[in-house]
Fold this sequence. Notes:
- The chain contains 20 helices and 18 strands.
- It has helices at residues 19-33, 50-53, 91-94, 105-123, 139-146, 175-179, 201-208, 217-222, 226-229, 233-238, 274-286, 309-314, 316-321, 334-346, 359-368, 384-390, 401-406, 427-441, 444-455, 461-473, and strands at residues 3-7, 37-43, 57-66, 69-80, 83-89, 129-133, 158-163, 171-173, 194-195, 198-200, 211-214, 243-245, 296-300, 325-329, 351-354, 371-374, 394-398, 420-422.
- It has a nine-stranded mixed β-sheet, sandwiched between helices. A six-stranded parallel β-sheet has the order 15-14-13-16-17-18, with helices on both faces. Strands 8-10-9 form a three-stranded antiparallel β-sheet.
- The N and C termini lie close together (11 Å).
Amino acid sequence: MLKVLLAASEAAPFIKTGGLADVVGSLPKELSKKHVDVRVIMPKYSGIPDKFSDSMKYIGYSFVKIGWRSQYCGVFEYKNDGVTFYFIDNEYYFHRNKIYGHYDEAEVFGFFCKAVLASLKVIGFKPDIIHCNDWQTGYIPALARINHSKDEFYNKIKFVYTIHNLQYQGIFPECVLGDVLGIGYENYTADKLEFKGNVNFMKAGIVYSDLLTTVSPSYAEEIKTRYYGEGLEGLLNARSNELYGILNGLDYDDYNPESDNLIYKNYNSKDFKQKEFNKISLQRELGLPEKRDVPVMSLISRLAPQKGIELVEHVIEEIADIDMQFIILGTGEAKHENLFKHMAWKYPEKISANITFNNRLSHKIYAGSDMFLMPSKFEPCGLSQLISLRYGTIPIVRETGGLKDTVKPFNKFTNEGNGFSFANYNAHDMLFTIQRAGNYYHDKKIWNMLVKRSMEMDNSWGKSAEKYIDLYSKLV
Length: 476
């Protein structure tokens, strides 16, 4: 049986800040169904809910050398949905009020990388493959290849490294190499660990892993260009034969309009009349006029430049002039939050600004909206457009990354497509696409066909898990 260990800095349902946690929480479940012995290892944060942490089983401990200190590394175990999760325990590093953004992140995740390798002998599990995710795990392959090269326990393990977002690379001063990671400076060269006079965790993962993946085929191509490559495009081109794009899937248990207990009324692709009930109920809850014949467009997002919020701001007055309602849910930069609050005050019958994080409300918005706006500047994969498709809420997206791979523009001549899209990062191209979608909304024959088609798409983890298994099989 294929043995795989996924290493990551977060995983649902234990702790989550973004899409990485959804992937690490969902992919192992699907791999396990396909007879892979897959396990997950992550930090034991103090923010993990008591219902999980109180039920964890203590396995054992080791000590990890960080500079001149030996740091305690406890290991706990918890089984969730048939998958074994291991948790690295060290209160100095992980007992904090948030999991990212600390001044000593290089040491925090340097410790984690070393602890993952040290813990394998404690738990008695020797994987065929360690699947590392994003910069926080980038030094695991490098440490195995450099510091443990003569240890037979480690030298046959293969490494897969997944880039979830190339923008965040874990770049720190060069002193981290010796003071934290304990790696000799003979490895601090341009073809190995040096990056513009610094240490780069993500570069280490790319250099020392056997195979590389990103979270969509289009993103795998984009990051080889200067515009998207964030300074690593040369290295990624050099390793293009080992770089694969595999789309993230959606957890169909968590997001299912037929059984979702967070929405107003359940529905499915065979009978989605109750979607209109969800719409009217959503309008009522948010204080918008209850109008069946006016399309509701929603945006659920971090209010940040990556998500294309500046495009929305540039034409927000024009959007308010269209005969539709616009619902925003999310938090982010203060200037974006304040503008949407102001526009909701100025156009109370057209715009609803919900500057908060609210999971229950997000489900209601997905179910109650007619359209979903996602104008990202770049989007490695994207989860929101997959959720909107699942709920029959037609996506309007910019053609980038995973959005390009999952949303195909409707073509009235061929009757193909499942949404609407625009190519240029341009506010008025976006506005025109919104207007075009609004026009089709009133042609119920076409619109109902799009809703049904979207809901019947298979964006679950099944196909993607098979591709990961094929990839793992190349290495063993």
